[in-house]
Design a protein that fits this description.
Chain A: It is an enzyme of class 1 (oxidoreductase). The complex is a heterodimer of chains A (370) and B (325). By secondary structure, chain A is α/β, with parallel strands linked by helices. Chain A has a five-stranded parallel beta sheet, sandwiched between helices. A two-stranded antiparallel sheet of chain A has the order 4-5. Chain A starts with a helix and ends with a helix. Chain A contains 16 helices and seven strands. Chain A has two domains: 315 residues, Rossmann fold; 31 residues, no CATH class. Chain A is globular and about 80 Å long. Chain B has twelve helices and 14 strands. In chain B, the strands form four sheets. Chain B has a five-stranded mixed beta sheet, sandwiched between helices. A four-stranded mixed beta sheet of chain B has the order 5-7-6-12. A three-stranded parallel beta sheet of chain B has the order 3-2-4, sandwiched between helices. Chain B has two domains: 183 residues, Thiamin diphosphate (ThDP)-binding fold, Pyr/PP domains (Rossmann fold), CATH 3.40.50.970; 128 residues, Rossmann fold (3-Layer(aba) Sandwich). The longest helix of chain B is centred in the first third of the chain and has 15 residues. The chains are: A alpha/beta (370), B alpha/beta (325). At the A-B interface, helix 7, helix 8 and helix 16 of A face helix 3, helix 4 and helix 5 of B.
């Protein structure tokens, strides 16, 4: 072997050199201290308080959703506790007209983007009204097919580019999702078309019971961006400031016409995969849970904000009370939504009903009139 | 009017719609500067620019996702899947996503997408190029599936498909691309989706067919005429939804029917047609409705196409069984 080729095949050089470039980006450490002064986004006091408010609110939303699910008052629910920085600080870097293509765990982002909470609850229960997105709210319903949101995001981003719109499309998947073909096709299309897309991988360490290491031999998921030739970064997903900055910068590059970015947020879900029977004690030890509990995004942000005199127990309690009240009202509104009829489902299939459905519509209309 | 082959009529339809609606986008593998592997998009990039007619990376699923995303931003995508045997790569984007978007969003988002794709046997293609997979598409609520058999139908149906605000799968038979020429109007015109066409009127037997099998059925009908039988040939044109009215009216007139498809007997859509007839017109039938279809094997190796694909002789044989039942 010639010198050049043997160097390329030497795992200690090429691979190591790549991995070395993906050091975790952090601004706020676990003790709530700024450890990367240079990268501090210097958000205004109001912005810092608003971001904390949303994170606390969403933690309560998660607690209430789990409890409402247990009471049978919600259906499908994928817990979010632990991912508040990853979900909400990335969303905080967006503008109103940006598009969000969420995965099934990404309900908080579309709620903060404008989807009414009662509709999010109807999504959980399985009612079409929950997915009737209000006009002007640029989101699609949570995607169940893991990876599909990635290829669709490449399409939305290309559409925005063709419209010369200074906006972006952002999408989210998990660590397991990075093994899908659509994950690669999505980032590769957006790269080839230099589209304004932000691809986020929320690496919460487990795909149901399967640990991250079983998905890939790659040391980081961020480095998979190299395969698409797009910039990528590994971020402390429990650090709201780091997630915010990474997303803000990706957005800036995208609207400047520099193409898409891939962001891996290293985070953790404290709860089960979903409320549909998953038991994390089968595959996770309490040691790991405790290790990640020490990294809690709300805890470190609270310390940081209290240090600046921007947050207090009283303020936090006000947010909690408001969240509980709004959740109660939203559940009530969901309860009051008329039940679905087969004729509704038929009517939503096509703009113009084909003959087979016209026939079935009449049959069900007759049944429903009895 | 101009004499056109089916592939020319398709190009013409695309040109009409690119001109008519600035939201129409044509994209796929090699559809741009190359003009498509069958020249179906020849000259379009030159005329309308790379923003309207463009090549994509080689990934069918990504192409499907692109169509979904472009629809969300108000475009009217007309993507191409190079051969329909490659649809398996994009089944989720078509059946799992495009077909369901209007329903899953309670009628708030629509997907005005037309997926063009060639298929069909008789030209010795390599593996997975000629398979008839319309049956898979016809089973997915939310789609419409269109299969033209003539240049005139191809243009009118493609324009209607592109203008439709719901997803349409538009399948183009490889053997029909250049085998027939006919008069095709130069201006834009439409043919309603879901409407069959009586290609030949008759009194003794109805043959329901689509794609290449329409022409094989017409050939069989001519042979049968020599033997004194008057045969009606109905080109379904849209295989989902079926034109029940035309099908039943024909059966009620002739009292005998066969359904002809190129797909395997366990595939295609012939069984649907038979069911609709037995549910709606059993009292008109003098004989069971029989099917002409390919054997239930994987699509043949190229050298075996001639012994495997259904042709007018198979149609004749089955027609006689029904006529003499």
């Amino acid at each position: 072997m010639g010198e050049k080729i043997s160097k390329q095949f030497d795992p200690k050089t090429t691979l190591q050199e790549i991995e070395d470039q993906f050091q975790m980006f952090q601004i706020l450490n676990e003790e709530g201290k700024i450890v990367n002064e240079e990268a501090d986004p210097k958000l205004s006091d109001e912005e810092l308080v608003e971001l904390m408010t949303r994170m606390v609110y969403t933690r309560i939303l998660d607690q209430r959703s789990i409890s409402l699910n247990r009471q049978g008052r919600l259906g499908f629910y994928a817990p979010t506790a632990g991912q508040e920085a990853s979900q909400l600080a990335s969303h905080f870097a967006l503008e109103k007209d940006d598009w969000i293509l969420p995965g099934y765990r990404d309900v908080p982002q579309i709620v903060w983007h404008g989807l009414p909470l009662w509709k999010a609850f109807l999504f959980s229960r399985g009612h079409f009204v929950g997915n009737q997105i209000p006009e002007g709210v640029n989101v699609v319903p949570p995607q169940i097919i893991i990876g599909a949101q990635y290829v669709q995001t490449a399409g939305v981003a290309l559409g925005l580019k063709k419209r010369c719109s200074k906006t972006v499309a952002i999408t989210y998947t998990g660590d397991g999702g990075s093994s899908q073909g659509d994950f690669y096709e999505g980032i590769n299309f957006a790269g080839a078309q230099k589209s304004p897309a932000i691809f986020i991988v929320q690496n919460n360490q487990y795909a149901i019971s399967t640990p991250r290491e079983v998905q890939t031999a790659a040391k980081t998921i961020a480095q998979k961006g190299i395969a698409a030739g797009i910039p990528s970064i590994l971020v402390d997903g429990m650090d709201p400031l780091a997630v915010y900055v990474a997303t803000r910068d990706a957005r800036q590059r995208a609207v400047n016409g520099e193409g898409p970015s891939l962001i891996e947020t290293m985070c953790y879900r404290y709860g089960p995969h979903t409320m549909s029977g998953d038991d994390p004690t089968r595959y996770r030890t309490s040691d790991i849970d405790n290790e990640w509990a020490a990294k809690d995004p709300i805890v470190r942000f609270r310390i940081y904000l209290e240090g600046k005199g921007l947050w207090s127990e009283q303020k936090e309690n006000e947010v909690i009370e408001r969240a509980k009240e709004e959740i109660k009202a939203a559940i009530k509104q969901a309860d009051e939504t008329p039940k679905q009829k087969v004729t509704d489902l038929i009517s939503n299939m096509y703009e113009e009903m084909p003959v087979n459905l016209q026939e079935q519509y009449e049959i069900y209309k007759e049944k429903e009139s009895k | 009017m101009a004499q056109m082959t089916m592939v020319q009529a398709i190009t013409d339809a695309l040109r009409c719609e690119l001109k008519n609606d600035e939201n129409v986008l044509v994209f796929g593998e090699d559809v741009g500067v190359n003009g498509g592997v069958f020249r179906a998009t020849e000259g379009l990039q030159n005329e309308f620019g790379v923003d309207r007619v463009f090549d994509t990376p080689l990934a069918e699923s990504g192409i499907g996702g692109l169509a979904v995303g472009l629809s969300l931003t108000g475009f009217r995508p007309v993507p191409e899947i190079q051969f329909f045997g490659f649809v398996y790569e994009v089944m989720d984007s078509i059946s799992g996503q495009l077909a369901r978007y209007r329903y899953r969003t309670g009628n708030t988002y629509s997907m005005p997408v037309t997926i063009r794709s060639p298929f069909g046997g008789g030209v010795h293609t390599p593996e997975m190029h000629s398979d008839s997979l319309e049956g898979l598409m016809a089973q997915q609520p939310g789609l419409k599936v269109v299969i033209p058999s003539t240049p005139y139908d191809a243009k009118g149906l493609l324009i209607s498909s592109i203008r439709d605000n719901d997803p349409v799968v538009f399948l183009e038979h490889l053997k029909l691309y250049r085998s027939i020429r006919e008069e095709v109007p130069e201006e834009a015109y439409t043919i309603p989706l879901g409407k069959a066409d009586v290609k030949r009127e008759g009194k003794d037997l109805s043959i329901f067919a689509y794609g290449l099998m329409v022409h094989e059925s017409l050939k069989a009908a001519e042979e049968l005429e020599k033997e004194g039988y008057s045969v009606e040939v109905v080109d379904l044109r849209t295989v989902q939804p079926l034109d029940i009215e035309t099908i039943i009216a024909s059966v009620e007139k002739t009292n005998r029917a066969i359904v002809v498809q190129e797909a395997q007997k366990q595939a295609g859509i012939a069984a649907n047609v038979v069911s609709e007839i037995t549910e709606r017109a059993i009292l008109s039938l003098e004989a069971p409705v029989l099917r002409v279809a390919a054997p239930d094997t994987v699509y043949p190796f190229p050298q075996a196409e001639n012994i495997w694909l259904p042709n007018y002789k198979d149609i004749l044989e089955t027609a006689k069984k029904v006529l003499t039942f």
